[in-house]
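Issue: copy button drops trailing tokens. Both records pasted manually instead:
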Amino acid sequence: MKFYLFGHGSIGSRHLKNLTELGHQETTSQAEADGFLICNPTAYHLETALKITRYNKPIFIEKPISHNLNGLDKLTGKILVGYCLHFDQSLKFFKQKIAGKKIIKVTIVCRSWLPDWHPDKDYRQSYSAKKDLGGGVLLDLSHEIDYALWFFGPVKKVTAKLQMAPELQIETESIADLNLDFVSGVNAKIYLSFASHKNERYCEVVTDSGTLRWDYQPNNDMYLAEIKHFIDVCQGKAKPLVTVSDGINILKVIEAAKNQ
């Protein structure tokens, strides 16, 4: 199969490498593409997707689906949103372990030091650091919001404290402290930061039968599984596991946090 790729940064290059290893190829002709991957800066996701819907081919949009909610109702067709943790085997196992238990407390943490993400580049020029490109810790680290909604369902109330990190010299928020109340009755505290010299990513759930913890371990297997799923979508063998509606619900939480 042939795929047209928008954006050849770190995540775009990873997806392309995985596609190639699976025996597929990149095409420079949009008309010849069997599917499209949108991996350019977040602020360009929607306009890019709308330009290619005329081909009526499946579209993969890297997370987040966009930088705000404007115009997302115009998206149609088979669209997979790139929240890759849905394909992480350890997180899926963790989800199964907490299912059916009475949940008392949920703590989700994802923190790191932005300059370390791509040491060979000036992080201050990256999309993560630019408001007009859709940067900021809420959008960039929205995987944690995604799996909280995946685990616990719709959110009824969001409270948040957002902070800048002067030492980073960037224009976007660098720290987000979220408190989510879910319709299911669960409360989750989510701490996101790319202004921390401590690098950790975990979810801790206290239940009536004990405390369970998941720690993220970097791996390519989930990205490979994600791309295999997108190929199945392109071949008509599967429906998108993470939908436009899911992407919108995540953005609604982010917008609620930003508007406080």
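Record 2 (pasted manually too):
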Amino acid sequence: MRYLGEDDPDFDDLREQIISHVAYIENRNQEYWIVADESPLLVVTLRTEPSHLLAPVGTRLGHIHPVVEDLDPDDLPILHNVLRKLGRDENLMYLVYDTVADRHKRILGSLLAMGFEIFDTYVQMMLELDEEFPEPEGLEFIPVKTGKRSGMLELQVEFYAGSGDETTKQVMKTVATLPQESLDIYYDPRASFLAERKGEVVGLVGVGIQRELLSSMAVSPKHRGKGYGRKILHHALNRMRELGCSRCYLRVHSDNTPAMRLYESLGFEVIRRGVTAILWLGKHPNR
């Protein structure tokens, strides 16, 4: 068992066997490797941060795409060594496997047996921005300008401090280190706000207009249960419509039931339930 890059003489023959799996990857001009025994088992594509927001910008990582339904348990120790060799040779910080919940359970189980760990179980939701929401009263929305986003991120970390959502807290540590041009993807200064009531910040919202993404929404712990989350969302969604977004996407931890109920009450629909597993190959940046 070994991994092969496009310079390997056997690469093209193996590629032809899995062309339906790699056509999309090639259309996106992504570099990839094939992990094979007598036939292909996995494809690993090269990604760089900020892809999963787990390491500094520019960090190389590998994204796993199985091309078989199951892996032989007897092969797992060898496969583990091959993947670690790939990581060393190609300077990959970690490998990630993202799949739809309740599918590919055997593959996921095999990867966990090799040392992968569940990093996140999440729900992706989407809302068609067909109608305007009532503009909220009682709150003042302060735009977070480009040079002021570090303060907003510090507040967000503070608001999440008591949360059991370890995934979000870890991601926020990475987000706080992003350069300004990367922050624009998640916190567009035209649509990211602090929500204040009588001069006190009660919540915040970050929006990525390019991706039609509600990247973050947080309410101060001492102000939860007062309806501020709904008001903040109304304002953010209206602003997205004004800036030309036709939809809003978001991702929420699957255990965050209160947030999902709020989103569903606004018309968001679940479009994916997923699981993300990680195998760290280098030093974990946040441990």
